[in-house]
Protein 1
Amino acid sequence: MLKAYCIFNDFNKKAYEILKNVGIVLEISKTGIRPNKSQLIELLKKYDILIIGAKEKITKDMLNGIKEKRIIATLSVGLDHIEEELFNSNRIKIINCPKSNVISVAEHIFSLILALNKRIIEANDISYTTGDKLGLSQKSEEISNKTLGVIGAGNISSEVIKIANAFNMKICCNTLHPEKHVDLKKYNVEFLDLNVLLSTSDIITVNIPLNKQNRNLISKEKISLIKKTATFINTSRAEIVDIEELINYAKENKTFYVGLDIDVDKYKKVLNQKMNNVIITPHIAGVTKEAINRMDIELANNIKDYLNLDNHQ
């Protein structure tokens, strides 16, 4: 019988039952207080399965001396908080939930796009002060028939493209393997080189995981290619984009709009003043009530499927 531990105290009851039905004894944190490194090491020693989140950094040294097989199950899409070397270990299985927050993130992307192009935040502020709509720094714009540049062609990008199609947007996409995404052709997606996409799109959204290859992908040089009247959205890991340069570009060009969903603690020096053309949310795109419940259930099912597969090999 496998023993599991969840660091969160609000794990979904249905997910709990899924694990129970395959013989897993799951202990759930009573407090929900996130464990530190030394506490994580002790949990890894004690439990066969450890359920964590994206804030828990797991490195290979944390498993030193542990000879038994371990499952590290993370309630996240991204896996950059887990050291890459662990993915090649025969003793460690990494399980995530890549599908659960797709709708949540895609909706958040369009919330930022619409809020920026319709000047919602600025208009709200004006309503509580002068009430004079002539005070808007820029008039609102429609997104219909605008060109949307989507960086990445995974689950989130596919949902974004589906929504964009309803807005009658012209859609282009940059991905390493366009031949694997011919299904997007039904939305009239045009696959473009990254530089071409950046220089021709009216609205750009970044939807790719962080890895060694794409860290700082949207560099200072790439940012300089973007139209000064464009809208740039990033709900992926902040490290994919040169955030400081992006904000500077927005400071220099008041018609350039930025929407970011990032861990703001790392960028307090950069985000030191409120700007009409920048909206920041504190990494909440994928954590709607519905998405959290789906993530718990998806993770439990993925653990169950892995154990069933492993037992039959």
Protein 2
Amino acid sequence: MNVNQIQAMKQAGEKSVALVVWDAPTAHIAHQCGADFLIVGDSVGVNLWGQSNNLEITLDDFLVAVKAVRRGAPGALICADIPYGPIQIDPRDGVRAAIRLVQEGGADLVKIDAAPDFPDAVTAVTKAGIPVFAQMGLSPQSGSKYGISISDLQQPESLVPDEMMGKLIEEAQICEQAGAAMIDLTNAGPVIGKAITDAVSIPVIGGMGGGPWLDGRIRMFHAAVGYGTKFLDNPPSAYAYVAQTCRDAVTELISDVRSGQQIKGGIGRK
């Protein structure tokens, strides 16, 4: 799989699937299952490493995860986020960061957050020969600016202010004109999401607030399988409940050791 093939899927009306992964085992599983591309998100710091927010992670920290994903899925199409900092400083810093993610991390393309605010960076990275996955969309704060909530936008019959719709379509077109290969759209809902998908020729793929009206979907691997401490005693709406399975397994392991039993998978008598 390559970026051109993802773009061709839009023209053919085929849906593309991306999974956010942060380590070699999950990357291997996701790629083996047939994900079209993998995303290494800078949210690894919060979701796996105990950081308090996404602004804490450095490029050097993040490269550890990117390299692990590449090792786990050598043949996958891999997108890596550019962590906060380089893009906000200068487009040239963004290019340097993107080059490191490709050369050292093994990424094939990079994701730039709030891309409509940094079109020069999108263009500069693209001119350096690295495809850009341009993130854009709505936050709760930006929605309130127009007097509408993110949850309101998730309704298929939601009434979207003309100013909001026009602004978001314009931002998507800015991303495309700047050279973005794909758009990562967040929190747009069905009405805005479909309008943006129809307004640009590049694939519009989304995670939060996305749906079948987009060209494809993004799902965090750990959320899809229900793995994470936040899911304990709070069954997720997901395809599995791995957090509970892990807790049950470790509880049984500890019980076996304390009662003098051989542990499962250990060496010795059963």
Protein 3
Amino acid sequence: MKNKYLIIVLIFMMGLEAYSQDSSIKTYSLDQCISIALENNLDLKSAGLRANSAKINYQQSLWDLTPSVNGNFNLGVNDGRSIDPFTNDFINQELTFSNLSLSLDATIFNGFRLLNTAKQNHLNKKASEMEAEAAKQDLVLNVTLAYLQVLNARDVLVLNRARLEATKKQLKVQEDFYKNESGNPADYNDILGQLANDETSILVSESNYSNAKLSLSRLLNLKDNLDLDTKNLILDFEKYNLSADDVYSEALQNLATFKARELRIEAAKKGVSVAKAQFTPEISVFGGVNTNYSSAAQIFNSTGTSIVDTGDFVTVNGQDLQVQTEQTNFDAKQISYNDQLDNNLNTVIGIAVRVPLFNGFRAKNNVALEKINVEESLLELERTYLDIKNTIGQVHFDMEAAYNRYQSFQKQVNAYQESYRINEIRFNSGVSNFLNYITSKNNLDNAKVNLANAKYEYLLRVKVLDYYRGNSEI
């Protein structure tokens, strides 16, 4: 009785351990996978950052249309021979100085360079937003395809495990015959070989299943183990009614990639206009307010007069007399900082014209380079048209082929299933040999695997075609 209780406790503890291991694996639905990818995927974040950079560049180009206003203030001490900023005289003493200025510069005309730059950056901003949307569509497609790849690998693994279980059951029957020496020893050894083959197939399937889940985890940028929750997943297996031309027509209207390419062309054309502005004169107005301060600046106030000797003499009646003169006395007073700023205030206003005469053909070559950018953008759009049209045609052809294979494999499974049922009964009854049985079993198992592969191959192609139609909703 004690042993019985001990066995029950061990089974219970093993169940708890298995549960704790399974609880670390999170299950995700397709919608959850897409939501996590849209939030975590690094490539999508990079596309969003590029769009934000383009937005900031556009905002800056708008501010470039406004006048520039700059203020300047400095304060310093100079010792030795210098120029007094108050009197412009040379002095040789310690001097504290300060300068204040406010300047304004506004471009009146420069061949619409600033305006066209703003328009170009606006187009680049819209193109970056479309490229971010295209990256989002690509990510949704890739997550959906990876999700279906995981389902496909899981279904194949389930089929191979079922094949192994069927082989184990047959091995048990043959093992009893073998021990009782009532069966063919070759049949027993053949079933052992089939068991090893089925176990190898499971190892391969488990590896494919793990790799498929790893690929999906990378798209989601997750480090946790994951499993799929397919309770609400509806995979309609219906014949696709749209032609390749129908899909391509919708792609031209809805796919963000085309819109991004077209906007890049328009932005490149504006780049030509920006470069041509280098041939035109630039007219600007400027203005400024300036003032300064000097510690050497003083003001002298009269305090009266006094008689002082001049150092000269005159002779009167043989007597030398000192020559004196009346001079005005002054009291030196430091001029305050605020008073100097007010007294030294000056303003300037003017207009400037810059005429390009010769710049080493830089303007001409810049225009030529911008025109090449336009041609490259046109070629890129044309290449996109051609690549997507060819891809849609190939995917549509593969989709139809997968659908036809699925129908064929479905008939094959039905036929092999009946053949296997009959051969299994005949083999267990000793009427048929092992070769007929194992051939029938392998035919059925392979047909089931082919059916599952054809099913998901068809669904994958359908999702790709829906993506090109601009349908990112799953």
Protein 4
Amino acid sequence: MPTPVPNTPSPYPKLEARPRLLARLLDVAVALAMFAALRGAAGALLAALYLFVADALFQGQSPGKKCLGIKVVQIATRQGAGIWASMRRNALASLCALLTLIPVAGAWIALGAALILAIVEFISMRRHPLGMRLGDRLAVTQVIDGKDVQGSLVKFPSMLKADQASVDAQQAFATLPRRSLSGETSRHAA
């Protein structure tokens, strides 16, 4: 299945990395607490399930994101991320939690995979004009300041005037190469 592309570019500005990282740390702490409370396979499964659906728990907010006032929105609909978007954007993090089920060295393998994933996702987030990490690109979501989804921004986006940086980011997003099922690369025109 090719990566879904939103019909319109995102009207939201790029969110700085600090609140996103703090929110993720809070969510990982919740998952670790679940893992520690149940131990073994049940703890790993519960932690993986939590990471998988966390962004849909409060209409686009995981508990960590809710504490920091940030939100995951689906770009095409400008609605908070639902269960399917949460599952797509957090699949790799959930997989890291499931790696703890591997006998003997599972915890070390999971830790190594989580560190590699964190580095790759951070670099991806920092380089993308809208701050989209790999999971966001797969789910076509964006993490934004929670105040941005209030009022006229969601209901009347055409009435908003974007600053030049936001316009540049939208144009950069629209020109990113897309891969089809056959592996051919093409440019998406907005």
